[in-house]
Amino acid sequence: MMAPRGPKPKPTRLKVLAGTARAHRLNPVEPTIEPAVPDAPEHLSDEALAEWKRVTDEMAKAGILSALDRGTLAAYAQAYGRWVAAERALRVMAARDAVTAGLVIRTQSGNAIQNPLVGTANKAMADMVRYAAEFGLTPSARSRVSATYFQEADDPFAWFE
Protein backbone atom coordinates (compact mmCIF):
# COMPACT_ATOMS: atom_id res chain seq x y z
CA MET A 1 0.00 0.00 0.00
CA MET A 2 1.42 3.36 -1.02
CA ALA A 3 1.39 6.36 1.25
CA PRO A 4 -0.83 9.24 0.10
CA ARG A 5 0.99 12.00 -1.70
CA GLY A 6 0.98 15.64 -0.76
CA PRO A 7 -0.07 17.30 2.45
CA LYS A 8 -2.66 15.75 4.75
CA PRO A 9 -6.18 16.84 3.90
CA LYS A 10 -7.47 19.52 6.24
CA PRO A 11 -10.92 19.02 7.78
CA THR A 12 -13.62 21.26 6.31
CA ARG A 13 -14.15 22.97 9.68
CA LEU A 14 -10.54 24.18 9.68
CA LYS A 15 -10.80 25.23 6.04
CA VAL A 16 -13.82 27.36 6.91
CA LEU A 17 -12.04 28.89 9.90
CA ALA A 18 -8.96 29.58 7.80
CA GLY A 19 -11.02 31.11 5.02
CA THR A 20 -9.64 28.70 2.43
CA ALA A 21 -12.80 26.65 1.89
CA ARG A 22 -13.86 26.46 -1.75
CA ALA A 23 -17.12 24.70 -2.58
CA HIS A 24 -15.61 22.71 -5.46
CA ARG A 25 -12.82 21.36 -3.20
CA LEU A 26 -14.96 20.25 -0.27
CA ASN A 27 -15.88 16.67 0.43
CA PRO A 28 -19.69 16.60 0.13
CA VAL A 29 -19.91 13.41 2.19
CA GLU A 30 -17.50 14.39 4.96
CA PRO A 31 -19.03 13.34 8.27
CA THR A 32 -20.12 16.15 10.55
CA ILE A 33 -19.18 15.76 14.17
CA GLU A 34 -20.92 17.57 16.99
CA PRO A 35 -18.60 19.80 19.02
CA ALA A 36 -18.15 18.36 22.51
CA VAL A 37 -15.64 18.22 25.33
CA PRO A 38 -14.67 14.60 25.95
CA ASP A 39 -14.02 13.28 29.45
CA ALA A 40 -10.36 13.08 30.39
CA PRO A 41 -8.92 9.56 30.56
CA GLU A 42 -8.15 8.32 34.07
CA HIS A 43 -4.54 7.38 33.23
CA LEU A 44 -3.36 10.98 32.72
CA SER A 45 -0.71 12.26 35.11
CA ASP A 46 -1.48 15.31 37.24
CA GLU A 47 0.42 17.58 34.84
CA ALA A 48 -1.27 15.99 31.83
CA LEU A 49 -4.71 16.41 33.40
CA ALA A 50 -4.04 20.09 34.13
CA GLU A 51 -3.00 20.61 30.50
CA TRP A 52 -6.07 18.66 29.31
CA LYS A 53 -8.34 21.00 31.25
CA ARG A 54 -6.51 24.09 30.02
CA VAL A 55 -6.64 23.23 26.32
CA THR A 56 -10.12 21.70 26.25
CA ASP A 57 -11.57 24.93 27.62
CA GLU A 58 -9.93 26.94 24.85
CA MET A 59 -10.67 24.41 22.10
CA ALA A 60 -14.33 24.21 23.14
CA LYS A 61 -14.59 28.01 22.86
CA ALA A 62 -13.22 27.79 19.32
CA GLY A 63 -15.59 24.94 18.45
CA ILE A 64 -12.80 22.64 17.26
CA LEU A 65 -13.16 19.81 19.76
CA SER A 66 -15.33 16.71 19.62
CA ALA A 67 -15.67 13.49 21.58
CA LEU A 68 -13.74 11.72 18.81
CA ASP A 69 -10.66 13.80 19.66
CA ARG A 70 -10.25 12.15 23.06
CA GLY A 71 -7.40 9.80 22.13
CA THR A 72 -5.31 12.31 20.21
CA LEU A 73 -5.87 14.95 22.85
CA ALA A 74 -4.93 12.45 25.57
CA ALA A 75 -1.71 11.67 23.67
CA TYR A 76 -0.96 15.41 23.51
CA ALA A 77 -1.67 15.90 27.21
CA GLN A 78 0.34 12.84 28.26
CA ALA A 79 3.30 13.96 26.13
CA TYR A 80 3.05 17.31 27.88
CA GLY A 81 3.01 15.55 31.26
CA ARG A 82 6.07 13.46 30.37
CA TRP A 83 7.91 16.54 29.16
CA VAL A 84 7.19 18.33 32.45
CA ALA A 85 8.27 15.29 34.51
CA ALA A 86 11.53 14.90 32.57
CA GLU A 87 12.32 18.61 32.84
CA ARG A 88 11.65 18.56 36.59
CA ALA A 89 13.98 15.58 37.03
CA LEU A 90 16.64 17.34 34.97
CA ARG A 91 16.28 20.44 37.13
CA VAL A 92 16.92 18.34 40.26
CA MET A 93 20.01 16.81 38.66
CA ALA A 94 21.18 20.24 37.50
CA ALA A 95 21.10 21.48 41.09
CA ARG A 96 23.62 18.75 41.99
CA ASP A 97 25.87 19.27 38.94
CA ALA A 98 26.77 22.89 38.18
CA VAL A 99 29.20 21.91 35.42
CA THR A 100 26.90 19.99 33.06
CA ALA A 101 23.55 21.02 34.57
CA GLY A 102 22.53 17.36 34.63
CA LEU A 103 22.73 17.06 30.85
CA VAL A 104 25.66 14.62 31.00
CA ILE A 105 26.04 11.61 33.27
CA ARG A 106 28.77 9.04 33.79
CA THR A 107 28.23 5.36 33.05
CA GLN A 108 29.44 2.61 35.41
CA SER A 109 32.58 2.37 33.30
CA GLY A 110 33.21 6.12 33.66
CA ASN A 111 32.21 7.26 30.18
CA ALA A 112 30.35 10.55 29.88
CA ILE A 113 27.04 10.25 28.00
CA GLN A 114 23.99 12.39 27.46
CA ASN A 115 21.56 11.99 30.31
CA PRO A 116 18.71 9.73 29.08
CA LEU A 117 16.28 12.24 30.57
CA VAL A 118 17.35 14.72 27.89
CA GLY A 119 16.22 12.28 25.21
CA THR A 120 13.00 11.60 27.09
CA ALA A 121 12.29 15.32 27.40
CA ASN A 122 13.11 15.98 23.75
CA LYS A 123 10.95 13.10 22.48
CA ALA A 124 8.00 14.11 24.68
CA MET A 125 8.36 17.72 23.57
CA ALA A 126 8.46 16.74 19.89
CA ASP A 127 5.41 14.50 20.31
CA MET A 128 3.57 17.24 22.16
CA VAL A 129 4.23 19.80 19.41
CA ARG A 130 3.21 17.32 16.69
CA TYR A 131 -0.11 16.59 18.42
CA ALA A 132 -0.64 20.28 19.20
CA ALA A 133 -0.34 21.13 15.49
CA GLU A 134 -3.17 18.68 14.74
CA PHE A 135 -5.47 20.86 16.84
CA GLY A 136 -4.12 24.24 15.73
CA LEU A 137 -2.46 24.82 19.11
CA THR A 138 0.92 26.01 17.80
CA PRO A 139 1.56 29.56 16.60
CA SER A 140 2.22 28.47 13.01
CA ALA A 141 -0.84 26.21 12.88
CA ARG A 142 -2.96 28.91 14.49
CA SER A 143 -1.75 31.53 12.02
CA ARG A 144 -3.54 29.58 9.30
CA VAL A 145 -6.87 29.74 11.16
CA SER A 146 -9.11 32.78 11.36
CA ALA A 147 -12.20 32.72 13.52
CA THR A 148 -13.73 35.62 11.57
CA TYR A 149 -15.35 33.10 9.21
CA PHE A 150 -16.93 31.04 11.98
CA GLN A 151 -20.71 31.22 12.18
CA GLU A 152 -22.90 29.56 14.75
CA ALA A 153 -25.50 28.02 12.48
CA ASP A 154 -27.21 24.74 11.86
CA ASP A 155 -25.64 24.61 8.41
CA PRO A 156 -21.83 25.05 8.52
CA PHE A 157 -21.88 25.67 4.75
CA ALA A 158 -24.46 28.45 4.87
CA TRP A 159 -21.90 31.14 4.08
CA PHE A 160 -21.19 29.46 0.68
CA GLU A 161 -24.67 30.32 -0.57
TrEMBL record:
Record-linked Pfam families = Terminase_4
Q: What is this protein called?
A: Phage terminase, small subunit, putative, P27 family
